[in-house]
Amino acid sequence: MDKSLTARLQRFTAARFSPGEAFGLHLTLGVLALLLAMAGFARIAGAVVDGSPITEVDLRLAAWLHTHAHASDGLRTFLLGVTHLHSTPGVMALTAVAAYWLYRRGARDWMLTLLVTVPGGMLLNVAMKHTFERARPHFDEPILTLTTYSFPSGHSVAATLLYGLLACYFTRHARSWGARAAIITAACAMIALVAGSRLYLGAHYLSDVLAGMAEGCAWLAICVTGTATFRRRRAWREGRNQLHDT
Fold this sequence. Notes:
By secondary structure, the protein is mainly α. It has one domain: Up-down Bundle (Vanadium-containing Chloroperoxidase, domain 1), CATH 1.20.144. Helices cover 80% and strands 0% of the residues. It has helices at residues 3-16, 25-50, 53-71, 73-85, 88-104, 108-132, 154-173, 177-200, 206-245. It is globular and about 60 Å long. The chain starts with a helix and ends with a helix. The relative contact order is 0.16. InterPro entries: PAP2/HPO (IPR000326), PAP2/HPO_sf (IPR036938). The chain crosses the membrane at residues 21-42, 85-103, 110-128, 148-170, 182-203, 209-230. Pfam families: PAP2. Residues 110-224 form the Phosphatidic acid phosphatase type 2/haloperoxidase domain.
């Protein structure tokens, strides 16, 4: 291989793993996260379409949870509150509050990212539901009666986008690895709580919520990485213009 070509490839590779580059480490990690999330979603979707063993797990788990949900009034009431809070109106209200808070803190780039990420991801989920057209779990005495499609779970997508983006913001400003770990754990716990509420109340199958989380991670990777790249590129151009002016 030509030495000059080898040198260019080495510089290109080094730049992709450099934290300070406009198209550096953040972009590499974002693309990796996107590819992993897309692969996970494709694997789950393929299994559902083909009727793989996960669909049998879906049915058994849904039946077991439905039986327990009718036997536990307190937990059922709590999870109904969780699921209603993260319905479309609830998530839009939470997003508006979070966006206002980010605006007051001067984090306008993050505010705009939030306003694109959450509603955009929810619209994407509607398109995905109409692509797969999977019926929801059916019970003789349902806790929730819904007429929309089941796959992927919209609540899981919305929770992944909202709490995932807030986790990205807070981890960026955290001062220690311990604080970052706590933030990520809290975000994952909230996402799991919302997804679990949909399972427990019989609104979704396990594969629905897993696919919803994978879909949310993919869209989140696109939005956060794209915004970060744009912000770094803008800072690089401003720095270059200032250097040129001097």
